[in-house]
Amino acid sequence: MKLITAFVFGVTFALGLGLGGMTQPAKIIAFLDVGGAWDPTLAFVMGGAVLVGAVTFPWALRRRKALLGDNFVLPTASAIDAPLLIGAGIFGVGWGLSGYCPGPALVSLVTLSPPILTFVAFMAAGQYLGRWLVRPSAAQEPILSDAG
Predict the structure, then answer these.
(1) CA atoms within 13 A on the CB side of 27
(2) Which of 99-103, 136-140, 144-148 has the highest mean pLDDT?
(3) What is the chain's Cα-based Rg?
């Protein structure tokens, strides 16, 4: 059941990205072009996501356990350090140059276009390299469990 639910939520997310135009790099680059032909569409998509999160997160965290899982796992790290800033900078530069972030890039794989295949290959290589360079810490621990 969890696999089916994850698939349905994934398809819903992919459809939302596609319908919102977030799989079109030109839309993303136009959003970042605040001095030129600025396109505010992305701001509305992000605003909708923030609104849904603002309503559902407090409700979900009041539950004893996750609706479809055993516990909630949230990050506990709160430091703003060099790895965070470097990673955010790399993400931002990649997003600004390509017009893709990971979610829309994966959704766009269905097109099988060489630019998106290249982007996803380099994105995967960057994730692998990042995991190899920076060993994970105990930044994620369950905050609620069945015993909790």
Answers:
(1) 17
(2) 99-103
(3) 18
